[in-house]
Amino acid sequence: MKALQFSRTGDLAALQVVELPTPVPATGEVLVQIKAAGLNPSDVKNVLGRFPYTTMPRVPGRDFAGVVVEGPQALIGQEVWGTGKEIGFLRDGSHAGYIALSAKGVALKPASLSFVQAASLGVPYTTAWDALERSLVKAGTRLLVIGANGAVGSAAIALAKVRGAQVLAAVRKPDQLRALQAQGFDAIQLDKPEDLGAQVNAVFAGGADVIFDTTGFWLPAAVPALAPFGRIAIIAAPVDGHVQLPALALYRKGGSVVGINSLLYGVEACARMLEQFGKLFDEGTLPLPTGLLESPLDEGVARYADVNQGGAEKVILVP
């Protein structure tokens, strides 16, 4: 099979298109013929050496959609999707023609999603789902999502809307603001961090019950925007890993900070998440992904470079 593979880290030049033997599934595993595989920023960071536990040589890639060609009889021929912490790090991932993984680590693909659409959702949607679950977002929760235009932010506001939360989306650019308002969301334009509290209180009197920061830079500014006993969920941090947290203001509000890391969940746990929100696409309550950039796996090295340079398009690699 054709695959992307790296044998050292620190430089995207380490990534190459290679020919590898098709994986042989072990007992309790399936072999999936990959029809589409999402390219996430974490895949790029993996090749750059940001995950010290990655073993090499390694095929990267976490998200995929495809067809089961070997494994338990009940699964053969089924269209499936998956993601998880092992693949691409401790065992070969999805940026290849085939992938072998636990039979319990795949979920049946929603019929309403194409392979390309399904492959775009794994990491962003499991991250957003985990954030909403662990910060206790439910009907009526006043939720602020900072960076609502990004992959995880978009997933968070869509999933929160289905739950009946009151959603306020925060973005930096006027065109992003207009796009969200056109979708029916209340939205604010981010400006000075010291103004965020007043901006949010103008919409949610007394502050937001939950604030979801997808950027890593708005944690200090989020505290004044938080309601008493509120929760701030974070999925990112600056490069040095540090922010100045106004601890006095946070504990006076009884607030808490929830760290969200999709790499805490293996393929089997992620498959259960995919099953839960996947049905919402077939029910028509979640919007189908659009604006995806399909690229042949042969051009994967160039697409990694695009993502590393900050390209905004969601890239899907097609073997």
TrEMBL record:
Name the UniProt record assigns to this protein: Oxidoreductase
Which residue ranges does the record assign to the Enoyl reductase (ER) domain?
A: 10-317
Entry-linked PANTHER family: PROTEIN AST1-RELATED
Q: Which domain of life is it from?
A: Bacteria
Q: Which InterPro entries match?
A: ADH-like_C, ADH-like_N, ER, GroES-like_sf, Lipid_raft_assoc_Zn_ADH, NAD(P)-bd_dom_sf
- Please give the Gene Ontology molecular function terms for this protein: oxidoreductase activity
**Cited Gene3D superfamilies:** Medium-chain alcohol dehydrogenases, catalytic domain, NAD(P)-binding Rossmann-like Domain
Lineage of producing organism: Bacteria, Pseudomonadati, Pseudomonadota, Gammaproteobacteria, Pseudomonadales
